[in-house]
Amino acid sequence: MTLSGKPTSFWLDSTLETEYPAFTEAINVDVAIVGAGITGLTAAYLLKQAGKTVAVVEAENIASGASGHTTAKVTSLHQLIYKDLIDSIGKEKARLYGESNQAAVEFVAATVKNEQIDCDFSRRSTYSFAESSDNLNKVRSEYEAAVELGLPATFVEETTLPFKIAGAVEFSNQVQFHVRKYLLRLAEIVAGNGSYIFEHTRVKTVEEGEPCQVVTERGNLNATDVLVTTHLPILDLGLFFAKAYPKRSYLIGAAISPEKAPEGMYIGVGQNYHSIRTTPYENGLLLLIGGGGHKVGAKNNTEESYLELETYARSHFGIEPNEIKYRWSSQDYVSFDKLPYIGKLTPANQHIYIATGFSLWGMSKGTLSGMMLADRVLGIDNPWADLYDSLRATPFVTQESIKENLDVGMHWIGDRLKGLQSSSVSEVTPGKAKLLTINGDKVGVYKDTAGSVHAVAATCPHLGCIVNWNSAEKSWDCPCHGARFDYEGKLLHGPAVKDLDKKMVQ
Ligand code: FES
């Protein structure tokens, strides 16, 4: 099966690889920040501006994880949410949700202006659209809810999309940008004068204390406060892995002439929706189309997800396979009550804070989290702190949380039976992978197209679920909380902090 496009994120491919040093010697700072995505770098930028010394510690390269694989829409229009929020938590809290995400949009715009960041920034409308009349009522309700909350909403029946829609809610004056250009500049501003960016330094754990100890694979650093901004916290104490579920989705980028390209940023509603926007590319534009979301580890044949995007690009935009320049995927954590968790790790922690559960809208909520975590450290009252309190009880009692945690329990028990009948590497054909049971151990075996065998322990080092094969990305993905590993066992994505052990098999 041949897929079109280079298998890498456009945001990463169109920026230079960073070369910040790895952590080498013990230091003391006011604030350590674990994870250099949009949340960590926004907080670091604000804290440094406020006179704090900071150290940002990143396991790989900065802005190369979730923030390097996003669609990079900064908006307070989150597909369909305001009607649901009014119904579930009431009008005042729904209003705060809209207000806080709008504040994040304006923060990005102001920072780009103040710091003169060259990041393909533009103000655009965002749209949640119903392609057919089936979902039109939902879009109308969302529009009415947004107007009720004072958000910049309009109902439209026509857009610049090259196909007919039944209707859309439009938010004006939102933001699109090149996320990595923006974040690389924030990192440049953070580094220096007693503050640091460290790359290729995996943090194993954080110990509360005065000061806190950030334990890395290369030694410890001391900090008065620690922000854990690793998408899903790498620290299990707060049980955030049980308050959100991991979702993967897919993106393609296709060259398109400006005359054929739509204006603005779009997301469909209903089943199998798509995300659409453009960004400057060479002498024209790159059309980004996203979709195909599924729970991590729930789908083996992930090539199908890219092929579905190719089909959609052809049927809706006339894009031919040779015009597709990029394909990549991304991961999100969806919180059970639709609100992110921003605040303390546990009630007992006085100096360790987290942010997670951005539910597919990480540009606005990541920025918002960075703003709010900086306020926590600086002792500034924040008007949205209660709404997003990381210690709120509700996540454990939603229908969604019960269903998802039951699902995790079933994986934990049921997946142990997978591959039970298979114990021979000869059953694996070149280019394929399989779970085998060898001497009672679960082993993940991938045979590359040249016939070389790559075998790893199939038990996730996070909490012991059995990983699943992801064929398009050649990775082992954990269906429980979304940890991912390459075919040689190297950790790609937390909450695990260790690789899968390599296995010798015959
Ligand atoms: S990510 Fe939690 S068990 Fe694998």
Structure, described:
This protein has 506 residues and is an alpha+beta fold. It has a domain at 415-493: Rieske Iron-sulfur Protein, CATH 2.102.10. The chain has 9 helices and 24 strands. It has helices at 10-13, 38-49, 82-89, 91-114, 136-148, 179-190, 303-317, 362-378, 399-414; strands at residues 28-34, 54-57, 73-74, 122-130, 153-156, 167-176, 196-198, 203-207, 212-216, 219-228, 244-256, 265-268, 275-281, 284-295, 324-335, 341-344, 352-356, 433-438, 441-447, 453-457, 468-470, 475-477, 484-486, 491-493. Strands 3, 4, 5, 6, 11, 12, 13, 14 and 15 form a 9-stranded mixed beta sheet that branches. Strands 1, 2, 7, 8, 9, 10, 16 and 17 form an 8-stranded mixed beta sheet that branches. The chain has a 4-stranded antiparallel beta sheet with strand order 21-22-23-24, with no helix packed on it. Helix 2 (38-49) runs parallel beside helix 6 (179-190). The longest helix is centred in the N-terminal third of the chain and has 24 residues, at 91-114. It is globular and about 65 Å long. 51% of the residues are buried. The mean pLDDT is 93. It binds FE2/S2 (inorganic) cluster. FE2/S2 (inorganic) cluster binds next to loops.
Helix and strand content put the structural class at alpha+beta
The radius of gyration is: 22 Å
Q: Treating each run of at least 4 consecutive H or I residues as one helix, how many helices?
A: 9
What ligands can be seen in this structure?
FE2/S2 (inorganic) cluster
- The CATH architecture name of the domain at 415-493 reads 3-layer Sandwich
Distance between the termini: 28 Å
